Amino acid sequence: MSTEALVFDAIRTPRGKGKANGSLHATKPVDLVVGLMHETLARNAQLDANNVDDVVLGCVSPIGDQGADIAKTAAIKAGLPNTVAGVQLNRFCASGLEAVNTAAQKVASGLGDDLILAGGVESMSRVPMGSDGGAWAMDPETNFETSFVPQGIGADLIATLEGWTRDDVDAFAVRSQERAAAAEDAGYFKDSVIPVKDLNDQVVLDHDEFIRRGTTAENLGKLKPSFAMMGEMGGFDDVALQKYHWVEKIDHVHHAGNSSGIVDGASLLLIGNETAAERNGLKPKARILATAVSGADPTIMLTAPGPASKKALAKAGLKAEDLDLVEINEAFAAVAMRLIKDLDIDPEITNVNGGAIAMGHPLGATGGMILGTLIDELHRRGKKYGLATLCVGGGMGIATVVEAL
Amino acid sequence: MSFTNTIRWEPLEGGVVNLVLDDPNQSANTMNADFMQSLTATVERLEAEKDQITGVVISSAKKTFFAGGDLNDLKQVTKENVHELTAGTEKLKADLRRLETLGKPVVSIINGAALGGGLEIALATHRRIVVDSPKIQIGLPEVSLGLLPGAGGVVRTVRLLGITNALMQVLLQGQRHRPGKAQEIGLVDELVASPDDLLPAALKWIAENPEAVQPYDVKGYKIPGGTPSTPKLAANLPAFPANLRKQLKGANMPAPKNIMSAAVEGAQVDVDSALKIEGRYFVDLVTGQVAKNMIQAFFFDLQAVNGSRGRDKDRQPWKSEKVVVLGAGMMGAAIAYVCAKAGIEVVLKDVSQEAADRGKGYSEKLVAKGVERGKVTQEKGDALLARITATDDPSKAQDADLVIEAVFEDPKVKAQVFAEIEPFLKPDAVLGSNTSTLPITGLAEGVSRPEDFIGLHFFSPVDKMPLLEIIKGEKTSDDVLSKSLDLAKQIAKTPIVVNDSRGFFTSRVIGTFVNEGIAFLAEGVPPMTIERASSKAGYPAPVLQLTDELNMELMVKIRKATKEALEAEGQEIPHHAAFDVIDKMIEAGRPGRLRGAGFYEYDENGKRTGIWKGLSELFPVQTPEAGIDPVTVPLTDLVERMLFAEAIETVKCLDEGVLETVSDANIGSIFGIGFPAWTGGVLQYINGYTPEGADEATGPAGFVARARELAAKYGERFEPPASLVAKAEAGEVYSDTALAAA
């Protein structure tokens, strides 16, 4: 019986700006996934597609172009054998990592599947965030009773509670841009970012196009806070402060330049157990040591990466100080800063190649992307232990601990 | 089953049936059991005789069209009645649905107020024609009683006006509209000049629309402004409940939330399902404690305090013709305005002409504002101002039948101003004092006719605050009390009557709330937590903000006066932790807003800019870092300490005979000193006390248990008085019938 979950490969599309003028807007989300499926099979030539049991994909707005189980749809369109199943899941921003973790648990359980394609997809330019409605925000009774507020308000509240000023969060954002640009220039992403091509085999996009080189604290300082108006006119500040009653007012420090970018993209990892490794002659890149989800107050919403990470680390038998690298999704600068504080880790091992502030956060795809980035960088540095974590809607947090092999 | 028919069937020419709403047992039509059965019988007959009918006109034989739900019935229902209540409302709504889907035109002709249930009946007809009279009110005010319009009012206004308009213009505030405004909104269809024009207009419409159906029963009908699946509405929808929460500040007011929920959920389904959803939210409210509290206060208690109160019903009400207001400060100036507005000639007297003129300036400002906003005509405004004579000359008081003294709170000064004015008054003039704290019996010794002396305690701002606290001194005559009650009616104030004591009822009780709130600071509670706890309790102004307005210097003055008076009687003033906080604040030079510095900071225009930065140094705060997770720590203790402090002090007022009725306590506390409306008033709060998280009220027994808990934790001031313990043990509640029997 197998007990290990191994990562054999981890690739992703480049991230295109999530707007009509973004490079990936004219590419359907299903094709983003199909392209990665073909590439996975191509670069793992020894792999027999008949041995793939399932496709697990995260997608946060699974309607329209992304509806009707895009995982199985992509598997069929990619020409995978009919025996390859597919399931789409949604754990908000954690969907991609949840897909990986689910796949890991499946293959490690020994109960069924041995080899799974896992990751996620989100074309935010085509299916805008929030377009799937949902009771939490849209049903007045649910919204009222659960003190719903949009995430940005929560991020600003975290900064307010921690006493982080606009300068503090802007400085974090500048670092993210600098690190992402440096990593790209050094070619660190080259092996894992797979160009998106059109049906005539022309390259549509081959690099993360969201990075803004030369971003400085000074030009970030000119941006208007994104959530001040919504907090005031929408009543959300008051909702949050009825819970955080000791806080006089929320300091709205986040804006487009220190929050994650809206982008299109997909990620795909090949996950399996030793049986799958032997049967297909696959060489593992990493071992998944532990996975965890957790939760904290849903109104502030974004503080659970800490609890989830601690839970996963405990399961892995590790301490925060054992970690060589950490990837925390930069949904908002304060979220990443809060995790660094909660785990008491060195900022210099955190998001070393930049994060979603620089490169964007294609909701359902992101978890798979940052886990891939983490494994690549552990290898490049010859290091061992890494943690990937994200804040999640509803106050949830998710974490995955890996060991590079 | 036998019942009294309340809907008369009167055939008109041309096959039209006139249904006349006319309950023979009541002066107004209500949705009582008789009406429900009459409606069923009527609808059945309409359906049976449909082929001979060309149309239906619904009219009323009463002064009002229809008064709405029967509050006596609604007050009784409990969670045990959920099943029958649900069945009852569903039956009513099914009957109204049958009426609007009869296939024949049905027209409501509205000759008087159509509020609540009355408007709901009219909404279930195809056309509403109203007499264009300013006396007629149209609206769904259920929310003000903690209810929602449960006879289709939510469903039909949403379908006709759209979600946003129905919520904002009709449902959430319960506005009472004049016919013109009601037509503008879309609540009614047609206005006519006089009652005689109603029937012809109805018959004309019936003739022109032989196959009327409701617009929302036409295939393809779209709700104006859309539903949650319409992107434009969807984009704003998440902010609807958030703004409601912002507005309610966490107070225990379930009705607006239920209304909003029923409106939005109902818009997503068909009419019949929407009616079912509306019914669930209605039953939830009507079986809950808050609606009971609010019905008790805003219907029954309000009726009692505004009633005859022992005055002979046949007696001609007294009317003041000329009043002297002594002192043209803030209170005097505003009292002058209120009296002049009621048509009374006013002499506004102060020590100098300049001060008196300044006082009249207050009225001038209010009139100018009213004219600007179209609330009053220039002519009426000018006439109001002409009735006010500002003067420093006591002889201008010649032949006045009423004095309202509003000078500095010093018995000597008060005696002086009365002595100066008395010679000019009518021999039986009412001698009223607007003192808020000084005992009336003592002040009465300063005048020549103590039996005509009475406390007339107004609340600031006088033109907005509805209460008049009337205080009887030891010698105050019944006749002067009657006149004072008549005065209240004349100047459109709601009176409560109390007996003499330091601080009477209102000032004495509000003091306990304010002290409790201030004392939290000394315990290390963060200032904003204190403010939000008082808002969550339902108080209209957060307690530290209120304290700044009330002015701590004044509070110290009152404390000193009380201390001296008590010491004269050989007693000591009980120490309160708030005193130390107040003293420290005064020492820090921060007595309140008047001086531009209190718990808050103020800009040069007196606008609050934020909590004073130095406050946390003066009163170090216990922070979340001190080991508590503030998100999960309930504010219940803070909330209940403020409410309990006032309730317990009120029981003492009853014990000491300061209060004579429960309704005075309830109305006085809500209208005068901002006791939260959801409680139904300070004694109803005890009656309906519901522990945090409990499904049902535990009443006085639960209150006593909790008071003892608070006493053990926070001090003996929370120890329940013996009379309250006895009441709890006897399983009784505070009610005026019980008091009368005792």
From TrEMBL, chain A:
Residue span(s) of domain Thiolase N-terminal: 7-231
EC number assigned by the record: 2.3.1.9
Entry's family note: Belongs to the thiolase-like superfamily. Thiolase family.
Protein name: Acetyl-CoA C-acetyltransferase
UniProt entry keywords in alphabetical sequence: Acyltransferase, Transferase
MF terms (GO), sorted A to Z: acetyl-CoA C-acetyltransferase activity
Enzymatic class: transferase
SUPFAM superfamilies: Thiolase-like
Superkingdom of source: Bacteria
The Thiolase C-terminal domain, residue ranges: 282-403
Organism: Patulibacter brassicae
Presence of keyword Acyltransferase: yes
From TrEMBL, chain B:
Every 3-hydroxyacyl-CoA dehydrogenase C-terminal domain range: 503-602
SUPFAM superfamilies: 6-phosphogluconate dehydrogenase C-terminal domain-like (SSF48179), ClpP/crotonase (SSF52096), NAD(P)-binding Rossmann-fold domains (SSF51735)
Domain annotation 3-hydroxyacyl-CoA dehydrogenase NAD binding: ranges: 322-500
Pathway(s) annotated for this protein in UniProt: Lipid metabolism; fatty acid beta-oxidation
Protein name: 3-hydroxyacyl-CoA dehydrogenase NAD-binding domain-containing protein
Gene3D superfamilies: 1.10.1040.50, 2-enoyl-CoA Hydratase, Chain A, domain 1 (3.90.226.10), NAD(P)-binding Rossmann-like Domain (3.40.50.720)
UniProt catalytic activity: a (3S)-3-hydroxyacyl-CoA + NAD(+) = a 3-oxoacyl-CoA + NADH + H(+)
PANTHER family per the UniProt record, alphabetical: TRIFUNCTIONAL ENZYME SUBUNIT ALPHA, TRIFUNCTIONAL ENZYME SUBUNIT ALPHA, MITOCHONDRIAL
Family, similarity comment: In the central section; belongs to the 3-hydroxyacyl-CoA dehydrogenase family.
Organism from which the protein derives: Patulibacter brassicae
Alphabetically ordered keywords of this record: Fatty acid metabolism, Lipid degradation, Lipid metabolism, Lyase, Multifunctional enzyme, NAD, Oxidoreductase
